[in-house]
Every structure is written in structure tokens, then in C-alpha cells.
Structure prediction request, 308 residues.
Amino acid sequence: MKYAFFQGCNIPIRIQQYATSTTAVLQHFGITLEVVPEFNCCGYPARNVDEKAYLLPSVRNLAIAEKRGLDILVICNCCFASLQKAKNVMAKDSVLLAEMNSILAKEDLKYCGTAEVKHYLTVLHEQVGAETIKKKLVKMFTDLKVSVIHGCHILRPREITRFDNSFMPRITEELLMPTGAKSLDWRGKLECCGAALAGINNDLSHKLLKEKINGAQDAGADFITPICSYCHLQFDTMQINMQKDSPETKLLPVLLFPQLLGLCLGLDEAALGIEQNSTISPEHITHIKSLLGPPKEEKKKKKAPVAA
Prediction:
């Protein structure tokens, strides 16, 4: 299976390890990601400025994927929501669709709505499946506690993203189970990390981030596992900047989900880009690897004796 790989703007420049680890993990399951140089920004920065300017870039990206005969696999939550939004609007507004296609025609492109948009977690959950993942594992964690934070854009609005239950997401939890890592129930897991306010109201942005760090640490998390690239930047970059002002505070290191899963698949930490996480130290990597052991077989439940 091959997908057009949509990384967005932030990941290729600032979080390359997200793309590297995702590619390595999916290749392990026979899924190829094709980098498409013609892809552009999803349009999100124009969302609150001009609706058409926001939608056109995503419609163009979808048309490019259609021309290649590929569905799109996305790792940026913001891009995922933007592409899904564009598909939703184009399906309902034929006048706007005609206007968009008149612009795309200048590049010999046409949007028809045939390309699907898939989040990489959905592909792992639905196309690969937890059972297949379990069979491929060569290691699993014995005592690793992580706090998963999904971010805002992937879960809401649910009628647009169609990813998971907005209030009780289960996809990530079910994908984590075979690895042996414990996903904690913690205060703030479904809330905003504050990234949207960075540069606008830094004090509030920092306050929201600090609340999430405290909530995860209070729950006993060894690592924070952000699904959203903006959440990653908050925890892996802004957290370090905040610590400079409060050096006594304890860092909460970041471990991406494909990095966590990749280790259980036997992939090397360098290939997964774990050392590129700014909050990860060599000691953290040593500690993570020390928690890895051989996969455990589930104990078969004994059948209840049949009454005479």
C-alpha cells in the first residue's frame, strides 16, 4: 500500500524525527510513503483571515494526490483537520468547488473528491491492526508510563475530522496496549497545550503548558507522548525555554508514539530520531531501553468446569 505523505510545514523543518520514525514504522508493515514535492501548506495560517484562502491550498493538495492516484497520509493534526475541512466544504458547496477548480485548471489540476485523507494512527489502527502489530513486536515495555496528549485539531470538530470519539478517544490507547506501555489517565489529556496562543499571549500559553506538565507529572508519567506537532513543539521546545526562567523545575521528556512503537519493533533509536527530541538525554534513552524486554504471551484463561 502506498500513500502520498503529507507532512505539513512544521515537521520537515522542526520535527523531522516525527516523519522519520513514522516512515520507519509504517515500512515495517509494508506501507510506503511517497514524498510529494508539489504539496504546499494546508492553508491553516489563513483560517481566520479568509475562508477561500484557507481552503484553496488544501483543495490543491487533494487534487495533486488525486492526479497521482493516491490517498493522503497525514502526521500533522492541524493539516489533517484542514484537509478534512476542505473535503467537507467541497462536498456541500458546488459553486465554491467550481470556483476552486477554475483556479486549479491553470495548473492542469482538478479536484473531484476521490482522494481520502488518513491520519497515520488510523492507518495503524484500521489497516494494520493491533493484532498484527502485536505479532511483529520483538520487544515490549515492562514499566513505562506515558501521558498521551492528542491536541485539539484531531478530535474536534468530530463531524469534520471523523477520527475518534472526542471525549473518550480509544485509537491511541488500543495501539499502545501491545507495547506494554501504560497510557495514564491524567488531568489535561484532552485540553489545549497553549500552542495556539504562542506569540499572542505568551503568559497564558505558558500557563496552559505548565498545567499540562504538572498534570502529567502528578499522574506519574515518565514521558509525554504528543500526537500533535504543535503540542510537540510546546513540550519539546517551549518547555526548555520556560525552564531557563525556573531552573528548579523538572523537565518532562517527550517520546513520540512512532518512536515508542519503533523500539518495540526492534528499530534502532537513531533511526527513530529519538536523540533529536530536545528534552531527551542519553540517560533517558538508556532508561527507556532498560525497560524493554521480550514480548509476553497472554495467559490463556482456564475454562470453567462443566457442571455434572
Q: What stands out?
A: Residues 128 and 261 are 13 Å apart (CA to CA). The two ends are 53 Å apart (CA to CA). The chain has 13 helices and nine strands. The beta strands are 2-6, 32-35, 72-74, 117-119, 140-141, 145-149, 182-183, 223-226, 292-293.
